[in-house]
User: Fold Putative ABC transport system ATP-binding protein from Acetobacterium woodii.
Amino acid sequence: MFIEVNDIKKSYGEGGSYAQVLKGVSTRIEKGQICAILGPSGSGKSTLLNTIGGLDTIDSGSVKISGVEITQLNAKELSLYRRNYLGFIFQFYNLVPNLTVKENIQVCEYLTQTPLDMNELLETLGLTEHQKKFPSQLSGGQQQRCAIARALIKNPELLLCDEPTGALDYQASREILMLIEKINKRYGTTLIIVTHNTAIKEMVDRVIKIKDGRISDDYVNTVIKPASQLEW
Ligand code: ADP
Ligand code: MG
Assistant:
């Protein structure tokens, strides 16, 4: 699995009537990598991520996942792609309030015939003791861990994370970043993390910076710092 983004352009508004948000973005992301997309607010990071996730249309260019052009798929094919390959994590956790932690995760367990082992996943994410609680009984960090478990249970090849630590304090953010590292190692998941936390650039394999709808910098890290050692 690898991702190729080729010269994508995108404007919002009817018929693309608003200003262009992505102004010709091209890149390639390799399997098993952790890639950070950094850039100021409004630069187009989420738009790029949503395009890779097939959540948004583009005006021109292409997005290919393992050679399959997802920008050409019909609605049914696109939903199969999302179901089979993708997990999404957002700044706000979007848990179902009247389901327990375990039940929230189970909602997605049935999407695949080959889910990860529930108990092992709960253990990996430090949720074993919280599995019978409701979201309102959890801290922000615990809720995000539940959202991550929900995205992971179907063992997606690609996990797209939009500001995963955006609503969390320092300590909880560090824990989530350490978890992201662990998930990548244990399950081989490819991760793309959109963030404006620039400290994250030190822990990832690859950094893509976006400025005003264009890639302004793109490099591979030769030295990778463990998330546990990040400071900001
Ligand atoms: P980032 O994630 O880097 O903060 P976004 O990709 O969310 O940036 O947004 C890039 C630009 O596109 C911003 O100017 C934003 O206001 C605009 N935008 C995002 N989503 C929409 C939308 N649904 N309709 C109109 N404009 C949008
Ligand atoms: Mg955003």
Notes: The chain has a mean pLDDT of 93. The longest helix spans residues 170-187.
